[in-house]
Structures are given as structure tokens and as C-alpha cells.
Amino acid sequence: MTLHDGGTVLTTGTAPEQAAGGAILVHGRGADARDILGLAPLIDTGGIAFMAPEAAGHAWYPYSFLAPIPDNEPWISSGLRAIEALLARFAEAGIAGERTVLLGFSQGACLALEYAARHARRFGGMVGLSGGLIGPPGTPRDYPGSLDGTPVFLGCSDQDPHIPRERVEETAEVLTRMGARVTMRLYPRMGHGINDDEVEFVKQMIAAMAGAGR
């Protein structure tokens, strides 16, 4: 696998310099930046700048997110740097972290959630759609820092073929302990996808963030 540093980034929405807030959208395994940017018009409340990094080879790391973390390195670290680079681009345009939402689906959700946990501070919001924190069962979750009231949404099927509900529940517990305001919704037999309820919740989260930033 190739590392993701300096990879493709797609953008849509309002120009960052004129935006009320930003959102970083991280795609899942087998998808690309264009796929996840398809969410943008569904959750854009006006005045939002969207950026989506693209994984080299359409995967952020080669194995399951439940595999030992060293097995998925150095690709996890490279993906985390890709998120960091986009946060820096937003910051240069005047969009602070507290006006930026980190959103990911599936493998992208795992990467986005792991980034926020490892770099805890106040974000505009965190959204993990069918994902959870990275690492095998029993991975220490003693992340330093505080999420300082960051709103978090975790949505997943209660029988997802890739994401054990126990990991979603653990993720909710860890982020709550770190000071986030977590909403978790497990949908009966939904499968591995995104539903209208999740989209509506995220849209309201972004509206609240953008309104506070104006």
C-alpha cells in the first residue's frame, strides 16, 4: 500500500475564506473522496466549506480496524496526517477547530474518531457513521486531553457485519469520559450504510455549529 501524504483532496460548498464553518468528510474502504462528498448537499445548511481527502488505493489501512494497531501502520498514521493537513488548511482560512466537523463513514469513521481522540480539543462536531475507535479488544483508551463539550454522533446498525455494536458502545463511553456530548443510535438490522435519520441529525449538528460561528 502507498501512504496518503500529499494525496488528492476534493472540495465543495462555500469557499473557506467566506464560510461559517467547515467539514472534513472521510470515505470508507473501497470508496473515494467523490463518494463521500455526495453527502455534502444533504447536510449543507449554507455557508459550509467541505473537504474530502482520498486514500491511496481507496483504503486508509489494509486490515480490519480491530486488528493490532502495528499491523495497520504506517498507514493509520499517514491517514491521521491527512486529516491534520486539512484542519491546518481550514485554520489558515480562518476556520478554527471549534467550527469544523470531522465526519467519516466505515473505515473513514474509524480514522476520524481516532484522530479526534488522539488530538482532543473542542471541535465543531464529530460524526462516526458505522465506525469506532481503532484497535483490538482491550486496547488502552487513556487518551490525554479533553473534548470540551464537542457534540458527537455515532450511528450504526445493531448487526453491522464489520462494526461490532460493542465497539460503538465502547467508543461512546470513551468519548463521553473525555468530555464529549455523545448521541449514539443503533438501528435495527440496518446493514452497513447511512440512513435518513443519520443525515438529518448531522444536518442539525452542522446548522448549530454554523449558527454559533456567525
Characterize this entry briefly:
The protein has six helices and seven strands. With 214 residues, the chain is α/β, with parallel strands linked by helices.
Short key terms for the protein model shown above:
globular, single chain, alpha/beta
Structural notes for this entry:
The protein is α/β, with parallel strands linked by helices and 214 residues long. Helices cover 33% and strands 20% of the residues. Helix 3 crosses helix 4.
The percent of residues in helical segments reads 25-40%
Structural class: alpha/beta
Q: Which parts are unreliable, with pLDDT below 50 for 5 consecutive residues or more?
A: none
Shape: globular
Separation, N- and C-terminal Cα atoms: 42 Å
Q: What is the element layout, followed by pairings?
A:
Layout: E1 9-13, E2 21-26, H1 33-37, H2 40-43, E3 48-53, H3 75-92, E4 100-105, H4 107-118, E5 125-129, E6 151-157, H5 165-177, E7 181-187, H6 196-213
Parallel strand pairs: 2-3, 2-4, 4-5, 5-6, 6-7
Antiparallel strand pairs: 1-3
